Amino acid sequence: MFSGTYTALVTPFRNDTFDSAAFTSLIETQIAGGVDGIVPVGTTGESPTLDHDEHLEVIAEAVKAAKGRTKVIAGTGSNSTSEAIALTVAAEKAGADAALLVAPYYNKPSQEGLFLHYSKIAEASKLPIILYSIPGRCGIEIGTETVKRLAKACPTIVAIKEAGGSVERVNALRHAIPDSFDILSGDDSLTLPFIAAGARGVVSVASNIAPKEISDMVKAALEGDFATARATHERYYTFFKELFVEPNPVPIKFALASKGLMAPDVRLPLCPMSVPNQHRLTAILKAIGLAS
């Protein structure tokens, strides 16, 4: 159900306000680049600093701009189960194709708490649900056994975005869950090894600026043409890593702004990219042909 490249969209701002025109334009470049879907208001979309109304506005704008031409996977996660339910139900009403739900952060629930959290959300909405495990940000991992339980108990929980940085974790998941349950890489730099271990694609930050290149790389890997996929991976590997030289999405917004696609604005507590890192990223963008 979920394979290929899904772009974790940035949320463009201008004067601290959502720039819907830049957002719509960005989505058009994604569709033209052949991505399989877009993911509004995830981590890359600065969801923690969007208020409730803005969150739903961005999802609605994504659905409107996509016009059914590509899947829209709405970020609806929260560390409050009731809020996650409300956002997921609203995303379903807005016309999203699926929901991406990050593990609850800060309150650090037990694995039983995680199971109950996701089960309640699945009961409240008919949307396909993609789990999102990113322990570096949330402080907890969605355990392999918990994923297995959820896959068995909740038919609408159909995939996981795995951002724990471990190929062994993908091996463990693939061994534990049905083949029909999809695994997506949460890290551009790990997409190829994850696919080799049984993942079916990526939720990509890099594809904001290089949708065709990332899509082609993933398609090649999924077709077993790892020589072609590896050549693209090696070309862009340094870029993948430099996108996290400062907190995401600061670098990718700077890269997009350098091409005139939007302002580089982020919301506090994120701040503009340091000048030395701007120079560093610009040099890399030029080296791989993403900047003049």
Describe this structure in words.
The chain has one domain (4-223): TIM Barrel (Alpha-Beta Barrel). 47% of the residues lie in helices and 14% in strands. The protein has helices at 20-32, 52-66, 81-94, 111-124, 135-138, 144-153, 167-176, 191-196, 211-222, 226-242, 250-258, 275-287, and strands spanning 4-8, 13-14, 17-18, 37-39, 71-75, 98-102, 129-133, 157-162, 182-185, 201-204. The protein is globular. The mean pLDDT is 97.
Helix proportion range = 40-55%
CATH uppermost class: Alpha Beta
CATH topology: TIM Barrel
Output the structural class: alpha/beta
Please state the second-level CATH architecture.
Answer: Alpha-Beta Barrel
Mean pLDDT: 97
- The N- and C-terminal alpha carbons lie at a distance of 38 Å
What fraction of the residues are assigned to beta strands by DSSP?
Answer: 5-15%
Total domains: 1
- Low-pLDDT segments, ≥5 res: none
Shape: globular
Strand order of the largest sheet: 9-8-7-6-5-4-1-10
The name of the CATH superfamily reads: Aldolase class I
Number of DSSP strand runs: 10
Radius of gyration: 18 Å
Query: SSE string, helix = H, strand = E?
Result: EEEHEHEHEHEHHEHEHEHHHH
Compute the number of helices. 12
Strand count, sense and closure of the main sheet? 8 strands, parallel
